[in-house]
Amino acid sequence: MSYTANIAICYPVEARHLQKIEKTLAELQWDARLIDAGQERIADALLSADIYCGHAKVPVPWDEVVRAGRLKWIQSSAAGMDHCLVPSVIESPIVVSSASGVLADQVADHTLALTLGLLRSLPVYFRAQQAREYVRRPTRDLHDARVGIVGFGGNGRRLAEVLSAFRCEIWATDCFPEDRPPHVRALLADDRLDEMLAEVDIVVLAAPLNDQTRGMFDAARLARMRPDALLVNMARGPLVVESDLADALDSGHLGGAGLDVAEVEPLPPDSRLWDQPQTIITPHVGGQRASRIDDMTEFFCENLKRYHTGRPLLNYLADKRLGFPLPADAAWRLRSA
């Protein structure tokens, strides 16, 4: 049988997820072949793929894929796009869409876990428990706290909704400071980040990794944060210069850091951050959820329908250099339109 398209899959699907995608293709009367490549075969599968959905965590010959000229559409299964947005892909006609917002609920959960853990001194109490010390120590509050969100896409907007239940004073910065929700006090342009840092006690990173954001929290910017402020990174590790962060924690300028991502993953055993008493480190699990693959498959099927029928893709990257969808193409906006 001849197929009109090869669709390569590289996220941890089960048989029922493949069946759902195949059902969607059948409903569209689309004679496409589905290839569950996984991490083991994705580098080879991409050379003959017309559509790709996934997040390759192995080396991929992107330049060769682009030269082959067959791949037409990349649907990332992650919100961060640095895994595929190499220069050759950016300059190519390949259509790219992200999974921005698909994992927003669990990212918000994990952000709360890290933030509350730091505020309620859980690292201190965990060590005390191991030493069998039953001693009260000071804690801080999330209710009525001033929180700044760096990057106001799908994850940042969902986090703001959740934080509003804690009566937080919410600030945010974004490249496109549009559609400020009523529960957000200020939505500022990204060049006003330092202004926001002077106002908030908790800074949450939810920005993409690109040339503009890499290393944005260096020694100078960390010094602009309020004394005893918390930094929570739920985005990408290279947004933060980790040696500078360790210095800021050592000096006592920052009150703590919650890190679900690292500059180099896995975080090296000799990193100074492991020994910081006011730091909580988790191994990039913020997007985990029992229904994660169900949610991603549902999202991909919706975009398959849109792609096949010529409708706007959810989270289409109009400017691939940015690494995120413009507000007009974001899933949170198109789905509510």
Structure write-up:
The chain is built from 12 helices and 12 strands. The chain is globular. It is 33% helix and 17% strand. It has a 7-stranded parallel sheet. Strands 2-1-3-4-5 form a 5-stranded parallel sheet, sandwiched between helices. It folds into 2 domains: 5-102 and 290-334, NAD(P)-binding Rossmann-like Domain (Rossmann fold, 3-Layer(aba) Sandwich); 104-281, 3-Layer(aba) Sandwich (Rossmann fold), CATH 3.40.50.720. It has helices spanning 15-27, 38-45, 62-68, 87-91, 104-119, 122-130, 154-164, 193-197, 219-224, 242-250, 292-309, 331-334; strands spanning 5-10, 32-36, 51-54, 73-76, 95-97, 146-150, 169-174, 184-189, 202-205, 229-233, 254-259, 279-281. Strand 4 (73-76), helix 4 and strand 5 form a beta-alpha-beta unit. The model has no long low-confidence stretch (mean pLDDT 96). It is an alpha/beta fold.
- Helix content percent band: 25-40%
Assign the CATH class of the largest domain.
Alpha Beta
CATH superfamily descriptor of the largest domain: NAD(P)-binding Rossmann-like Domain
What name does CATH use for the topology of the largest domain?
A: Rossmann fold
Give the overall form. Answer: globular
CATH architecture of the largest domain: 3-Layer(aba) Sandwich
Low-confidence stretches: none
Work out the count of structural domains.
Answer: 2
Provide the residue-averaged pLDDT.
96
Distance between the termini: 40 Å
Q: How large is the share of residues in beta strands?
A: 15-25%
The secondary-structure element order is: EHEHEHEHEHHEHEEHEHEHEEHH
Q: Can you list the strand order of the major beta sheet?
A: 8-7-6-9-10-11-12
- Sheet/helix structural class: alpha/beta
